[in-house]
DNA sequence: TAGATTGTTAATCGATTAACAATC
DNA sequence: TAGATTGTTAATCGATTAACAATC
């Protein structure tokens, strides 16, 4: 049934938002919805919604619409949210701590095994139940526990140094909060999702300026 | 000279990354670069680079290429990075604290005035020099200090409650870390930049799954 | 001047929207 | 059956890439 191969990244990036809206509907006791209604709610076109859902095989029904609960779970399945991919977090500064305590990894397809940092003062402590270990022990740890994903909450230079060694230790996916462009590295099998907060803020800066210009005009 | 109006958001979103690479070149003492060289470095096409830069009026020179320093500063100017837009941060949980201490607002076009939260235990303290004030005083504060941008590090429901009152108080831009979709609100003059960390992680979850499927295939 | 590389126009590619026949 | 709404094909729109004349 599922024909998931080769679905474009634009579609994938919309799935979490669809799921969010469907979750809200579910909470409000809505059991069916048409692409038209959902489109209005989400500020999209009904065409786009039908096209998007059909990338994965039709789970609507003509004349009826979509079953909210089925669709919600289907999207979760497509995203692999019940897939406990073992992960490690590297860098326990402000950002690393926030990510460790703020994100619900288990509900997003991952299982966080632990946190690594070089600051001796915090080794042995834990955050949100995740133990903080010394970065020097990460090699040993990876050989034993085989994490597949690494979260990089490190400065540029340190991320640059660590990326290749981590790949050599079996890491195949990065959630990258550093400014180092991992994608530029040789290995094409590595998947990377970047969160460049500063870039995001600069984009906002541009938009605020545009806003001003419009007012003047 | 600048013809910045109506530049597409795809182009704008690439500007911070260009600036980052140009900054690196500058650090390494490189003074000129051709679109071809930069394309190789960044994994883009030289065509795209020339198209992008030309959205803002040609600052290259035929037969020579681009002056790295001039281009770096030009991009900063386009993004409005020296524009101290007054901003407030709302929600001083893990994420809010990380944003307040991790982001260099001054170098990104903003000036953070202070932080608001409802937890009495932390009111009066400060983070990274920014005072923490009670959320009940935000109305008064906005009337006096006139911030234009608000950073929302709040749960869904609280963000939903606060968005419209903040707009009424003169906020015209949001850096939104909550899951509430501010864009869905009536006012078209409001600009919003969303940082949906959970969505980002779910996208990564999907990609890791695809990775597996490919190996099996 | 000759070589290099831009700025810009044209061609291609992909993503979004519109239209409508299929069908519940 | 009639009405509604999907799934899917075709049309449009926008973004990326290719090509090349302009020019430093």
Strand content of chain A: 15-25%
The largest β sheet of chain A comes out as: 7 strands, mixed
Number of alpha- plus pi-helical segments of chain A: 8
Uncertain segments of chain A: none
Tell how many strands the DSSP assignment of chain A holds: 10
The secondary structure category of chain A is alpha/beta
Briefly say what this structure is:
The structure is a homodimer of 217-residue chains. Chain A is α/β, with parallel strands linked by helices and 217 residues long.
Write up this protein.
The structure is a homodimer of 217-residue chains. Chain A is of the alpha/beta class and 217 residues long. Chain A is built from eight helices and ten strands. The first copy, chain A, has helices spanning 9-27, 35-42, 46-54, 68-79, 94-102, 138-145, 156-168, 197-216; strands at 32-33, 60-61, 65-67, 85-90, 110-117, 126-127, 130-134, 149-152, 173-176, 191-194. In chain A, the strands form two sheets. Chain A has a seven-stranded mixed β-sheet. In chain A, strands 1-3-2 form a three-stranded antiparallel β-sheet. The longest helix of chain A is centred in the last third of the chain and has 20 residues, at 197-216. The first copy, chain A, is globular. The model of chain A has no long low-confidence stretch (mean pLDDT 93). At the A-B interface, helix 1, helix 5 and helix 8 of A face helix 1, helix 5 and helix 8 of B. The first copy, chain A, binds a DNA duplex (24 and 24 nucleotides) through helix 3 and strand 2.
